[in-house]
Specification:
By secondary structure, the chain is mainly alpha-helical. About 80% of the residues lie in helices and about 0% in strands. The model has no long low-confidence stretch (mean pLDDT about 90). The chain binds fe (ii) ion (FE2).
């Protein structure tokens, strides 16, 4: 692949990652607002929202270092779609379970995105970009691992709350 094609592909991938992280915020923030009975999930979501804001900053820095303007990103449509996806769960009694599965899927999607971007960075010799991408990847892997480990606990708590008939609130 020609050098400029690799660069275009890298820039597009970085912009998509930027949109992906804004989508992540629009999924996590409504979830956090609604959680009442799962304090450990709320705490972790709060932490990952802050991490995600840092990830967006890193991506913007990488784009800026490459001489790319990040203001014209097509994030809005994706953020809106993410918000709608989160809202779609609000009427369901098993919202916490559906959100746990969706978050697990989303974090693993993010992991794949950063692995792919790191491969492109290596191929194109974009050495300066790799530390930021690796930092983002590491945070996604930590979050995905936590969701994986916590799934049984959340599900067990959901079942016991359901038994106590407090499913009106998640
Ligand atoms: Fe994430």
């Amino acid at each position: 692949m020609a050098e400029n094609e690799t660069r275009d592909f890298f820039i597009t991938g970085l912009r998509n990652a930027h949109a992906m992280e804004n989508q992540a915020l629009s999924i996590m923030k409504p979830q956090l607002e609604r959680i009442e009975n799962y304090p450990e999930v709320a705490q972790k979501l709060q932490q990952h929202i802050q991490e995600t804001e840092g990830q967006i900053d890193r991506l913007e820095q990488i784009l800026q270092d490459l001489g790319e303007d990040h203001s014209a990103l097509k994030d809005w449509a994706l953020s809106f779609a993410g918000g709608m996806a989160a809202m779609g769960h609000t009427m369901a009694g098993d919202e916490i379970i559906k959100n746990s599965l969706a978050n697990f899927a989303f974090e693993n999607y993010e992991i794949a995105a950063y692995k792919s971007l790191l491969t492109i960075a290596d191929a194109g010799g974009y050495v300066a970009a790799t530390s930021g991408l690796r930092a983002n990847l590491a945070e996604e892997q930590t979050m995905a691992a936590w969701l994986d480990e916590n799934l049984a606990q959340v599900t067990t708590r959901f079942l016991s709350l359901k038994e106590a008939d407090v499913t009106a609130k998640i």
